[in-house]
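Students often ask what a 'structure token' actually looks like in practice. Rather than answer in the abstract, let us consider Elongation factor 4, a protein of 621 residues. Its sequence is given first.
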Amino acid sequence: MEIIKKYLYDRVYCSFFIINVHSNQNFIRNFSIIAHIDHGKSTLADALMRVCGALEQRHEKEQFLDTMDIERERGITIKAQTVRLSFRAKDGNLYQLNLMDTPGHVDFSYEVSRSLAACEGSLLVVDASQGVEAQTLANVYKAIEHNHTLIPVLNKMDLPSADPENIKTQIQNLIGLSGDDALEVSAKKGTGIEAVLQSIVDRLPSPQGDATACLKALLVDSWYDAYLGVILLVRVVDGIITQKMKIFMMAANAVYTVEQIGIFTPYPTPVNHLACGEVGYIIANVKTVRDCHIGDTLTEEQRPATEALPGFKPCTPVVFCSLFPTEAGDFDRLRESLAKLHLNDASFSYEMDTSNALGFGFRLGLLGLLHLEVVQERLEREFDLDLIITAPSVVYKIQLQNGTWIDLHNPADMPTPNEIHSMLEPWIKATLLVPDLYVGAVLTLLVERRGIQDSLEYITPTRALMVYRMPLNEVAFDFYDTLKSLTRGHASFDYDMDGYEEGELVLLSILLNGEPIHALASVVPQMRAYEKGRAICEKLKGILPRQLFPIAIQAAVGGKILARETVSALRKNVTAKCYGGDITRKRKLLEKQKEGKKRMRKFGNIEIPQKAFIEVLKLGK
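Now compare that with the structural description of the same chain:
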């Protein structure tokens, strides 16, 4: 083991950093922190870095690894972050701990799965006052799939409402881990942190790999830098990465030369090499964004690997929407921005889309409504774009009369009713943990959303575990917000896809003066078409600006009009100049005005403000 102390001048910081270069994998531990949202993952990560001396006091701040403005404003983790820590254990040896802090919200589960693939163990953080939540269970299942060793950690022990014995029983009954092995800590107060670090050394396995074999490195994450190009975050499985090495990206079939190697301490710190089992970043002058594929295998050009690493399970989008620039000239900027953002967030997909009302744009596939909001905000903030977003929809499967099956991503592309034989919608299996005080209100909500009960049991005298099957369309928009409102934030929710089932679904079209607005079209259950159509018409009536001609707002299913509202025309008083005289003169002027309004209504353009799309999107929240 060799300890090198050297100066590193970063763009902002100039300080001492200790860089650990290990030739022995036994002194390396790669681990992630997983938990339900708001259970203290980021606070625990701060505490671990503080005890290991990774944070400088003058630069210290809460949730240090949450670097994006959106993360700090919303108080959630969106991107998984990595940091290398140095910890001297009780045996006197200095260990290299590679930490990955992960998101807790279900919409960012792909970030969690990628981080777990690069580690051998996890800290399972549970709030000592709230207990095991739905996303806690989901993350445990992901960790078990990756053969992780789990260390349960009870956080927030400083709270008066902390109930460690009850929580240990929940961990034993729901997860199957021994509650006696759970560590009791307060990340905010900094108590019990050294015991967590010692447990990481004692209980988690060291990485397995052949340091002398040909290079195999897993591409875990990437992002774009305006000056350096594409930066790659890798986990070395076999072999070693050195500077000036020519690497071959197997999926992209491209060769690049490694110009710089570094680690995060948590500040970017250059090193000479990345050895077997280590995690760090490399800069290799990758200028083409499309050459970078998350989950790709990096190997040496001169001595390539014969097989690629398994990579990651493909991410399946569940919510789709269209995105358009408000200015048609920004389309190329939007395309470049999406390519750069996709480099950093591989969990969404996009393809070209067009609209009669909005012009050229892109169709996005995302993991949920929060994911959609975050992607939109990042595009607007990081790339200075002004965007219009259409109502989200899920993927439907349609069997045509000729027997062929098609996937419907965009409601505007739905075939006519006489072409459709049957239509299937995606269903999910939802897991909810609800305090007994709110069980009745949640059951009512689930019934309203067409939920079918699988099971309902009380895991403790005050908490109920509900398992329901529901259509994804009922969940993808405002279900999570409504659930939180009903339960004052105390309920937790998670879901898994559960196949497709046939449903009585119709295309709800919105027409303005007889012209369909494709961006406002949606697929809805037949029994709710009138209710939603009426709500959209009323909302648009209050939003659309008045014109010199009346605007008819209609909601239709096929050729049947379900609801109608009319925006009255602005009227010019053409008879104001007539005073006295015969009434026929006034009638002539009014008839002339009437004819002009007819022509104007026929050829006039109705500009739909961006606010209209946003308000329709929020209907029901």
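One point worth highlighting: The chain has five domains: 2-203, 216-300, 319-391, 397-503, 507-617. Ask yourself how you might have guessed this from the sequence alone, and why that guess would often be unreliable.
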